[in-house]
# Entry
Amino acid sequence: MSSHTDLLDRILTFDEATQRDLVVFTRRWFAREDEVLVQVRRRTRELGLPEIQIRPEEGQILYFLARMIGARHILEVGTLAGYSTIWLARAVPEDGSVVTLELDPTHAQIAREHFVLAGLDDRIEIVEGSAHETLPMLARREPFDMMFIDAEKTGYPAYLSWALDNLPVGALIVGHNAFREGKLLSSTPDAAARATRELLESMAQDERLLSTIIPVGDGFAVGMIQRGVGSP
Ligand code: SAH
Ligand code: DHB
Ligand code: MG
# Structure
């Protein structure tokens, strides 16, 4: 690390106010929310759900990635009120789909209302229950072009393992909260930070994946499934 101090100097360029202005600028020009997204975020707050949905500029990156690979079928783990699901569902064609997995029945119910509000309920399917139990049943469904993981952090390594077993070559795996709100590299990491670190280290090392971190918001861990070295 110490040999990189010259490079580090070059990234620690922006003060907090500048950073904030840059996010405002990005949102204004590239990640503007329409009425539906604004309303979904407002209702999430009013109904007392945790406000841990992705930020607009993160939603727009998901949308961009999905469009870039021409995703038709997307799988999401962790629906909450459906904010991220709406960004994803808008990226797939009319005959495409998003399957989203949610443990909490209250969250699922509220999300369902939001999908109707967004006019996307015909494109989105919510599967209730713990993803650890519902994922095995999804293995035989249409191949998913993209999987967005945003549920309990301790589950991420298991979700990655499912993805590696079940997604086709070319599929994208995207994990939210790669930086764990700054706690990723804590010297006293909690279980969530430890699991996230485990996830990132295995994504970086796994030959079946081409991986990177997109440092938007709290960070996306991104891996594209590629043919393993030595396989045809
Ligand atoms: N992706 C959402 C935010 C998800 S918050 C957005 O950006 O809009 C995390 C969600 O994961 C919560 O709703 C929580 O209930 C759900 N969750 C937690 N553990 C889960 C599990 N084992 N299986 C499925 N969902 C889970
Ligand atoms: C938490 C979970 C998230 O997915 C997130 O984006 C922010 C916070 C949490 O469980 O604390
Ligand atoms: Mg998250």
In short: The chain has a mean pLDDT of 94. The longest helix spans residues 16-30. The radius of gyration is 18 Å. The longest strand covers residues 97-102.
